[in-house]
C-alpha cells in the first residue's frame, strides 16, 4: 500500500510487531513503520470490533492506538520507534493491567 | 410566532429523565401528552449524571424515601425489559449489588454507624446490607488497593447506561404518542377555568394538567401555579477514562465501569450556584481517591471530564406535590432521576392521570414539609 521514497535514507532499527521482526527507519513513528511494513490495520475498536488503521498521523484522531512495550492505547503516530521495541496490534479494549 | 393553540390532556414541562419518564407513563395511561423542552442549551442533569441505580444510605431523616427508593429499584428490571421491547435499546441494567469503600478505619466506622442509624429509624423499611472487611471485598473486587480497609455492600444497588435510558425513554414516549416540543422553554404559565396556558417562545400550549419536571427550573415555575419548589443547583464533577477490558464486577458509589468499558469517577458535591464548570482541585481529588481504591486506574488515560448540576432540596429528598390553588398542576423533582425512573413512569404518572397524588403515599414528599419554624 505504501512505499518509501527512493531518496529516503538513514539508519534502520529492528522492532517486532505481534512478535514478527519488522525493519523500520530510526526516525519513523510506530504508525509510519506499520504502514511502511504493509500492516493494514493496527487495532480493532472497543465497542464494535471494526478494524482501524493510522489516519491523521498527527496525534488527533486516536485511530492508530497500539500496545507499545506492553502498554496499551499508545498513539502509534506520537511514538518514535526504537531498536528492540515490541509493538502489538490491539484487539478491542485495552486491558487495564497493560 | 405560532398562534396555533394546541390543547393536551397533560403538558409535561421538562424533557429530561424525570419529564420523559412521567410523559411516557402518562401516555401509557391513555393521556394525550406534550413535553415542552428547552433544547440543547438546557442544563441537563440527565446527560451528566453518574448512572447509578442506588439504594444504600438513602433515607436518613425520611424513612419513606428509603422505602420509595427500594421500590423504585425493584421496578427497574421489568422497566428495562419493557423499554427494550418497545425501543430495541438495551439500557444495560446491572443490579449486582454495589459498594461504598472506606480508605481508613475511621471512614469504615463512620459508614457502619450511618447505616445502623438509618436502619434504626422508626418505620424504616429494612433491607439487606453488609459491612464487609477487606478480605471479603477483595474476593468480590480483586483490584482493590492496599488502602481499602473495608466497606458496605448492598445487594439492591446497581447501575445502568443512563444515556441509553434517556434515549430509550424519548423513543418510547414518542412511540406511545407523546408530542415532544423542543425549543419550548416556558416563559410563563397560568391557570384559568380548569385549563393551563403555557407561554413559550414558540407560542402558546394549552393543557388540562401540567407537570413541572424542569429540574432546577421548577423553582421559578412553581409559584406561577401555586407550588413552592425550593430546589437549588448542586454541582457534581465527573472524570471519565478511556475504555478498558471489564475489570470491575460491581459498581462502587464513586467508581463504576460502564457497559462500553470506560470508567467513570465521581462524585463530588459543591455549592457553586448555577455554574457547570469543572475545576482541577476537585477533579484531582476525585482521581486520587479512585486510584487509592483501584491503583491500576492510575495507568489509564482520562478522556473526558464534566460537571453537572443536581436538583437539590434542603433535605435532599424529592418533592412530589400538587397545587391546591391550581388543581391539575403537579411537580416532580429529585436528584435521582435514574434510580427513580421506573417509579416515575409506573407509579407517579398513573396517579397523575387518575387525578391526583394519593396523600397516604405522596403526602410525605409535599413541599409543605419545609413549612416548619426554624429551630434555634
From TrEMBL, chain A:
<dbReference type="GO" id="GO:0016491">
    <property type="term" value="F:oxidoreductase activity"/>
</dbReference>
<keyword id="KW-0560">Oxidoreductase</keyword>
<protein>
    <submittedName>
        <fullName>Sarcosine oxidase subunit alpha</fullName>
    </submittedName>
</protein>
<dbReference type="InterPro" id="IPR042204">
    <property type="entry name" value="2Fe-2S-bd_N"/>
</dbReference>
<dbReference type="InterPro" id="IPR036010">
    <property type="entry name" value="2Fe-2S_ferredoxin-like_sf"/>
</dbReference>
<dbReference type="Pfam" id="PF13510">
    <property type="entry name" value="Fer2_4"/>
</dbReference>
<dbReference type="GO" id="GO:0051536">
    <property type="term" value="F:iron-sulfur cluster binding"/>
</dbReference>
Automatic annotation (TrEMBL), chain B:
<dbReference type="GO" id="GO:0005737">
    <property type="term" value="C:cytoplasm"/>
</dbReference>
<dbReference type="InterPro" id="IPR036188">
    <property type="entry name" value="FAD/NAD-bd_sf"/>
</dbReference>
<dbReference type="InterPro" id="IPR006076">
    <property type="entry name" value="FAD-dep_OxRdtase"/>
</dbReference>
<dbReference type="GO" id="GO:0016491">
    <property type="term" value="F:oxidoreductase activity"/>
</dbReference>
<protein>
    <submittedName>
        <fullName>FAD-dependent oxidoreductase</fullName>
    </submittedName>
</protein>
<keyword id="KW-0560">Oxidoreductase</keyword>
<feature type="domain" description="FAD dependent oxidoreductase">
    <location>
        <begin position="9"/>
        <end position="349"/>
    </location>
</feature>
<dbReference type="Pfam" id="PF01266">
    <property type="entry name" value="DAO"/>
</dbReference>
Amino acid at each position: 500500500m505504501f512505499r518509501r521514497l527512493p531518496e529516503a535514507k538513514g539508519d534502520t532499527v529492528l522492532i517486532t510487531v505481534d512478535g514478527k521482526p519488522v525493519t523500520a527507519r530510526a526516525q519513523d513513528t510506530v504508525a509510519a513503520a506499520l504502514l511502511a511494513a504493509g500492516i493494514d490495520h493496527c487495532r480493532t475498536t472497543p465497542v464494535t470490533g471494526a478494524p482501524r488503521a493510522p489516519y491523521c498521523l498527527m496525534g488527533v484522531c486516536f485511530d492508530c492506538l497500539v500496545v507499545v512495550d506492553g502498554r496499551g492505547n499508545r498513539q502509534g503516530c506520537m511514538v518514535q520507534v526504537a531498536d528492540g521495541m515490541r509493538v502489538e496490534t490491539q484487539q478491542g479494549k485495552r486491558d487495564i493491567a497493560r | 410566532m405560532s398562534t396555533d393553540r394546541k390543547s393536551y390532556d397533560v403538558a409535561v414541562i421538562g424533557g429530561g429523565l424525570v419529564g420523559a419518564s412521567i410523559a411516557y407513563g402518562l401516555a401509557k395511561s391513555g393521556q394525550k401528552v406534550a413535553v415542552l423542552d428547552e433544547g440543547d442549551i438546557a442544563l441537563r442533569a440527565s446527560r451528566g449524571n453518574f448512572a447509578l441505580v442506588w439504594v444504600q444510605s438513602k433515607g436518613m431523616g425520611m424513612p419513606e424515601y428509603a422505602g420509595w427508593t427500594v421500590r423504585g429499584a425493584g421496578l427497574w428490571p421489568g422497566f428495562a425489559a419493557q423499554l427494550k421491547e418497545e425501543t430495541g435499546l438495551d439500557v444495560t441494567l446491572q443490579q449486582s449489588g454495589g459498594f461504598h469503600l472506606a480508605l481508613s478505619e475511621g471512614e469504615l466506622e463512620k459508614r457502619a454507624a450511618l447505616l445502623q442509624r438509618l436502619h434504626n429509624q422508626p418505620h424504616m423499611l429494612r433491607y439487606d446490607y453488609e459491612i464487609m472487611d477487606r478480605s471479603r471485598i477483595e474476593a468480590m473486587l480483586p483490584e482493590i488497593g492496599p488502602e481499602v480497609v473495608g466497606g458496605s455492600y448492598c445487594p439492591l444497588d446497581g447501575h445502568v447506561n443512563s444515556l441509553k435510558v434517556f434515549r430509550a425513554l424519548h423513543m418510547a414516549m414518542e412511540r406511545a404518542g407523546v408530542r415532544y416540543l423542543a425549543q419550548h422553554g416556558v416563559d410563563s404559565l397560568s391557570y384559568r377555568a380548569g385549563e393551563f396556558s403555557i407561554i413559550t417562545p414558540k407560542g402558546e400550549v394549552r393543557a388540562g394538567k401540567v407537570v413541572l419536571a424542569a429540574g432546577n427550573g421548577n423553582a421559578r415555575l412553581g409559584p406561577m401555579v401555586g407550588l413552592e419548589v425550593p430546589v437549588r443547583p448542586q454541582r457534581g464533577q465527573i472524570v471519565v477514562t478511556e475504555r478498558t477490558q471489564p475489570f470491575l464486577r460491581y459498581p462502587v458509589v464513586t467508581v463504576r465501569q460502564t457497559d462500553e468499558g470506560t470508567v467513570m469517577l465521581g462524585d463530588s458535591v459543591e455549592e457553586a450556584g448555577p455554574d457547570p464548570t469543572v475545576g482541577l482541585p476537585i477533579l484531582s481529588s476525585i482521581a486520587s481517591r479512585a486510584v487509592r481504591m483501584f491503583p491500576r486506574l492510575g495507568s489509564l488515560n482520562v478522556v473526558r471530564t464534566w460537571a453537572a448540576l443536581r436538583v437539590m432540596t434542603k433535605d435532599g429528598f424529592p418533592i412530589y406535590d400538587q397545587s391546591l390553588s391550581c388543581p391539575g398542576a403537579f411537580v416532580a423533582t429529585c436528584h435521582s432521576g435514574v434510580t427513580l425512573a421506573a417509579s416515575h413512569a409506573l407509579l407517579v404518572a398513573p396517579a397523575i392521570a387518575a387525578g391526583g397524588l394519593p396523600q397516604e403515599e405522596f403526602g410525605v414528599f409535599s413541599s409543605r414539609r419545609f413549612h416548619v419554624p426554624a429551630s434555634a
